[in-house]
Amino acid sequence: MTADELVALFDLEPTSDDRFVGHSPNNGWKRVFGGQVLAQALVAAERTVADREPHSLHAYFLLAGDPREPIVFEVERVRDGRSFTTRRIVARQRGEAIFVMTASFHAEEPGFDHFAPIPKAPPPEDCPDPRKAIERLEGPARFRMKGMLDTTWPIDFRPTDLGRYAPGARVEPRQIQWTRIGQPLPDDPALHRAALLYLSDMSMLETALGAHGRTIYDNRLQIASLDHAMWFHRPARADDWLLYSQDSPNASGATALVRGLFYAQDGRLIASVAQEGLLRQRRDA
Fold it and tell me: Catalytic pick from 24, 200, 272, 275?
């Protein structure tokens, strides 16, 4: 998929008031990528809001989406206040809800300003190409990662530590990587917000698995995003390098919580992310 195809992915078709239809790329995936549904739902919500930008969203993945089927996004205008606007979005396939999201929009106004400092990390040009990580994996995991890299383009990323990809490596449940859309995007700020949301779902659960010597490419595991939240703090381009710092403070039962921070190269905090995911050992593995 190219950047132009990504832009087309976010260009939803309006079918009636507050109702839009989106499609999935033909990339061979068996289910719809969660970041895609998140981004398309945000696009649908923004189409119903004027002169305000999103500042937060909270979403739940209910069912795995079928990439062969169109996705219908229904937007409910929950509230239009003096400073804040609230929208609820339901994504459906074959009439059944597969995803729900609430998004809040805020009118621009002055206020206090501070942010946590950017973590120390080598610049992206000094970090290894992720394809070198493939060499550290063994067996089916190697082919699964190669397939992932081939089908998630134009997402580009640079890990700061390849050691976490070594077979059985147990590392701290945290990671820092550079990420971006690897080809130029148009200047539309709404498009860059959608692309940032698309990027945010890419590597979170891998952060939790590192503490247990496992990776998302392990076919003995059942892995799925359960929910996703994002807070937009400052504008940024999704086609510029962004530092994505993640940590997992907890895993228990069959779920794990992961938190993330996006930073621009100049050190500004762009967005905060949180996600809980399913990490289940397959019974037949």
Answer: 275
Beta bridge partners of 259: 247, 274
Residue 152 has pLDDT above 80, yes or no: no
Nearest Cα to Cα of residue 174 among 250, 104, 108:
250
Give the active site residue among 156, 201, 218, 239.
201
Query: Burial letters for 54-64: b for 16+ Cβ neighbours within 10 Å, e otherwise?
Result: bebbebebeee
- Catalytic pick from 40, 225, 245, 248? 225
Separation CA 108–CA 167 (nearest Å): 48
Catalytic annotation present for 203 = no
Tokens of 238: 């999704």
Question: Is residue 225 annotated as part of the catalytic site, yes or no?
Answer: yes
Domains in the chain and their CATH numbers? 1-110 (3.10.129.10), 124-285 (3.10.129.10)
pTM of this prediction? 0.93
Q: Could you read off the pLDDT of 245-285 as tens digits, one per residue?
A: 999 999 999 999 999 999 999 999 999 999 999 999 887 65
**Residue 201 catalytic?**
yes
SS3 state of residue 99:
strand
